[in-house]
Amino acid sequence: MPTLSVPAAVPSASEDAEQLYQAISGRGTKDGQIISILAHRNQNQRKLIRQVHAETYGEDLLKSLDKELSPEFEKLVLLWTLDPAERDAALAYEALRKWNPSDRVLIEIACTRTPYDLLDLRQEYREGYDISFEEDVERHITGDLRTLLPPLLTPQLVAYRYEGEAVYTDLAEIDAKTLHEHISNRAYTHEDLISVICTRSRAQLAPTFDLYLQLSGNPILKDLEADAEDEYVAALAAAVECLIWPEEYFEKVLRPAVNKLGTDEEALTRVVATRAEVDLGKVSEAYDRRNSVSLAHAVADDTSGDYQAMLLALIGHDPSF
């Protein structure tokens, strides 16, 4: 359930590009005008605005924006304005350059995108950074995570992940037994376990995890989280949750990102920018159920200025819309 709101009558890309140019190039950047346009256009409309802006004014809109905005607001606007594949490539590139085993950005990309999305990412990565995505992953990932992340992220392997709704009960039974055996034995890197997680469809994994519950007596996440102090097992648990319960996963990312102890702008920006056109409505509902205030209220309390206004607009709480 997306939270992006687009007006019934959208101006032409030429009109939007002109309005943005005036907002950026005039005396004092008109941030409200930038929000009123970009926060209320879908990815195809934003792409067309960028094309028209480049053709008309001789510069990529992203470069024009990069010169004028405050840091957190700028990062959100730029990340949001990128095409999804460009955005994923940028996030993956940054995550690999700052590689930390506890960072979940690559897990999020691997487990909430389709195989086609990952193929698009691969192409953008090559064009944008002049390096193979697969080679960069292999180069930077360390430890046991080399067992999990490359097969999750490699488009040629993930292409085996069927995206339809067909479910095979006999296969689910076999896979549930496989998962239960290896998790019980703490053989978390076993190739058969990895194969199930990396190649089965989301529709197929759901009954598999139900059957796992019958075998174990515990949900698969509970069994994995029992060993969550192990960085690899924590990543495996995050992958399972992202694949089947993404709204629950992203709620857990947002909960510590907006609290009285401080804001994790990086996590907040990433989740809002990547999920607003996908399922941020469900993520917001999950947040509202598990916390004493709504997501919009938490964001309003924890942020300020144009960064706050852009976030609230993308969450679906723009008072001017």
Structure description:
- Keywords: Annexin, Calcium, Calcium/phospholipid-binding, Metal-binding, Repeat.
- One of its GO terms (biological process) is response to salt stress.
- Belongs to the annexin family.
- The chain is mainly alpha-helical and 321 residues long.
- Helix content is 70%, strand content 1%.
- The protein is built from 21 helices and 2 strands.
- A hairpin with a 2-residue loop joins strand 1 (258-259) and strand 2 (262-263).
- The two termini are 19 Å apart.
- The model has no long low-confidence stretch (mean pLDDT 93).
Taking pLDDT < 50 over at least 5 consecutive residues as the criterion, the unreliable ranges are: none
CATH architecture of the domain at 169-244: Orthogonal Bundle
* Tally of contiguous helical segments: 21
The order of strands across the largest sheet is 1-2
General form: globular
Q: Structural class of the secondary structure composition? A: mainly alpha
Number of strands: 2
Binding site for Ca(2+) 3: 303
GO biological process, one term: response to cold
Protein name: Annexin
GO molecular function, one term: calcium ion binding
